[in-house]
Write a structure and sequence with these properties.
The protein is of the alpha/beta class. The chain is built from 15 helices and 14 strands. The chain folds into 2 domains: 162 residues, Rossmann fold; 204 residues, Glycogen Phosphorylase B (Rossmann fold), CATH 3.40.50.2000. The strands form 2 sheets. It has an 8-stranded mixed beta sheet with strand order 3-4-2-1-5-6-8-7. Helix 1 links the parallel strand 1 and strand 2. The chain binds 2'-deoxy-thymidine-beta-L-rhamnose (TRH).
């Protein structure tokens, strides 16, 4: 019999919570033949990346996943075989009672945030709290052996490689978005939180000897882009040129299209968690705007990732990348670090491909979750 999974997603802010859980839910259905209910408390965030979502529906099916609106007033629902609380969200108390009331206790996991820090390996799969005999476990995604790995659909790398080898497919995809880069222009994408360091980077790109076409999906960075351009408003479809730099605002596209966008670009600035991982699967150089946390603890996470990511780079290329990423995440001066990175571009590009292939040797997160369940029953 198919295992039944319940995934709970509380949309705290942004798109990472739903982005990760929606991706996981689909993969469990398609690749592991699980029956999955995805409980989401904010369907509007979901609709942005999956426009078929009916934001009024309490129950609907999307790509084989049963999507349920997680209401403030919970109504009695039998618990599933496997229960995932994403990013430490609190399950409805009545649902926890239903878990405890089951004849066979369910496997209850907290799917944690992604981090490259050392301690993750020691905490992955450890027991957490207990509720009336139902044990909760920590489940950590990660980049190292001994973690739960990263979300990666079967055949993803091969699809990406085929797409990147097919100039016509890329052109067609970009034309569908109204993107027509000039011959020889570098294509970049920018998805980031508000960042005072942006102006310095755009100044540098606009005065560079080589043309850059920068694609900016609608989102939080748009205010900074607008200020730098000196325009009163920006909306999807707008294109502005400043010397060597063309800035084009894109609509927020469906999740699969966002992958294609990353695959088309020579360089991707990404943020949070899911777009960060997707940019790594794109096999191209990237810049990460990490989600800011109290007391700057996100900077430790940034350093932990950088230490891992740069370990096989030459000292000079590593220093260039680290300086750029740190400047971006502290809203520092971007011009010099960017110029330094350009000096090491071939090495950094090759490294992005190597890193991607190395990471793809790990079991993916959905498979790791299924394996944990199978070893647990
Ligand atoms: O939106 P985010 O900033 O989400 C964040 C992080 O996950 C953070 O860790 C978490 O604590 C916070 O949310 C609550 O960035 P992230 O994780 O990259 O999620 C964005 C999602 O949006 C991802 O699934 C890709 C998707 N996306 C599209 O589908 N279309 C688009 O056009 C774009 C730009 C993104």
């Amino acid at each position: 019999m198919k295992a039944r999974w319940d995934i709970f997603c509380s949309v705290v802010d942004n798109y990472g919570d739903i982005g990760v859980t929606w991706r996981l839910a689909r993969q469990l259905v398609v690749e592991h033949h699980c029956e999955v209910r995805l409980w989401v408390d904010d369907l509007r965030a979901f609709e942005r990346m999956c426009p078929e979502v009916d934001v009024q529906a309490t129950q609907q099916w999307q790509d084989g996943v049963e999507v349920r609106h997680w209401p403030a007033e919970w109504s009695a629902t039998p618990a599933a075989d496997v229960v995932i609380a994403a990013f430490a969200c609190q399950l409805p108390p009545d649902y926890m009672e239903a878990m405890a009331a089951r004849e066979r206790t369910p496997l209850w996991m907290n799917l944690d945030y992604l981090s490259a820090e050392d301690w993750v390996v020691g905490c992955h799969r450890l027991p957490s709290v207990k509720f009336k005999g139902v044990q909760k476990y920590f489940f950590f995604p990660g980049f190292r052996a001994g973690t739960g790995g990263l979300l990666r659909e079967a055949g993803l790398i091969e699809q990406r490689q085929a797409f990147q080898a097919d100039a016509a497919a890329q052109r067609q995809f970009l034309q569908g978005l109204g993107v027509f880069p000039a011959a020889g222009a570098r294509l970049f994408s920018l998805f980031a939180y508000e960042n005072a360091g942006l102006a310095g980077w755009l100044d540098t790109l606009s005065t560079d000897g080589r043309a850059t076409h920068l694609l900016v999906p609608e989102g939080r960075i748009l205010g900074d882009v607008q200020r730098w351009l000196g325009v009163t408003a920006l909306a999807a479809g707008d294109v502005h040129q400043r010397d060597a730099l063309t800035v084009q605002v894109l609509p927020f596209v469906r999740q699969a299209h966002y992958d294609h966008l990353l695959w088309c670009c020579d360089f991707n600035a990404v943020r949070g968690e899911d777009s960060f991982v997707r940019a790594q699967w794109a096999g191209r150089p990237l810049l990460w705007h990490i989600y800011r946390q109290d007391e700057d603890i996100h900077l430790d996470k940034l350093d932990a990732f950088l230490a891992l990511y740069t370990k096989d780079l030459s000292p000079a290329a590593s220093a260039a990348l680290v300086t750029l990423w740190q400047a971006w995440n502290t809203e520092g001066e971007m011009a010099q670090p960017w110029k330094l990175l350009l000096e090491h571009w071939p090495e950094v590009s090759q490294h992005a491909q190597r890193w991607c292939l190395e990471q793809a040797l790990q079991a993916d997160l959905a498979t790791a979750l299924v394996q944990f369940y199978e070893s647990w029953i």
